[in-house]
Target: DUF6545 domain-containing protein
Amino acid sequence: MLYPLCAGIAWVSLLFKVLGRGRGPAAAAVSLFYLFMGLTFTISDPRVWALVSRVSGVPNLALLLSQGAVIGVAASQLAALTYWERSAEEARPRVRGQTYAFIGLFAVMAGLFAAADLSTEDTTTAVIRYAGNWRYALYLLLYVTAFAVAQYLLVVRCLRYARAVEGRWLSRGLRLAAVGAVGGLVYVVARYADVLAGPLGLDPADWEVVARLGAGGGGILTLIGFSVPGWGPQVRALRHWLRDYRAYRDLYPLWSALRAANPDLALDPEAGRTAVRDLDFRLHRRVVEILDGRRWLRPYQDPDAVVAPSGLSGDDLRAHVEAAAIAAALSRASVGAAESAATNPAPATPPADAETDWLVRVSRAFSTLEHR
Model:
């Protein structure tokens, strides 16, 4: 389940990256990273593995293709980091050199793969089945060493870059990608152990689950880490919208009572309990209108008529006292029993930056008074 999940995340990430507005060499490198990750874990699926062998007529060709895709993962990761760290002019020759090195490595891997005798098809354990074949063992050592170097550099550079950037989501994504690269290093250690297992009389199957967890788990974390800067701000915006939506809804009982007492307070007297469009403006208007309503009620306030409820303390007590004061003032306003505004100070309020949250608390308390 882990490999198909990782493949699915990679393909979805690639789709959003392609459809997104990001352009430039760094964005292209990240897109290639998603592509190679998708290929790696898709080809590693036993059903796809068998299909590749059947169509090509080459047993275990999926082994070379999937591990070649891993080399592409490493190359694209380093390319993305290089473009993030340097200007395009400085980064381009470095990325070109890295790309040639990885292409050369894959060519050597392909030669060793062709020379090795991997004729027995194995869709699930071919990686460890042939670890005793010296040509394949050399192939495996080259592959995991290159991947190890890339993952080590990814850890070091991601952590270093995460401390230097100003964007919070980019910093978080880089740190998460570094953790995922550590999972890749766990996979590397397991593959080195595969090569050493034969001479030491050990069975590589004993730690194969560790290799797969390192590869799959690390791959998922790295995918999320690279994609966080793209969708993280949208998640934050959604959380902000949901917070405003709940605030707008929860302010309705208090606003509705004030509007009923004085319809002139409301810009839109027909506004409902909820709103979706123009929520920022509507929430701002609702807060302003409640504040206007509280000022309008000052002449009708009678502090001596408010009894503090028992069993409450702190902000909850203050909110219920203010809600009760508003309810009492509304009752007095309905019969025109006004007091002198000079002898009735305005209710105490918290700092302005917390005013909306405070009014939400008061409105919730007011709502409980309505249902008593």
Q: What stands out?
A: The radius of gyration is 32 Å.
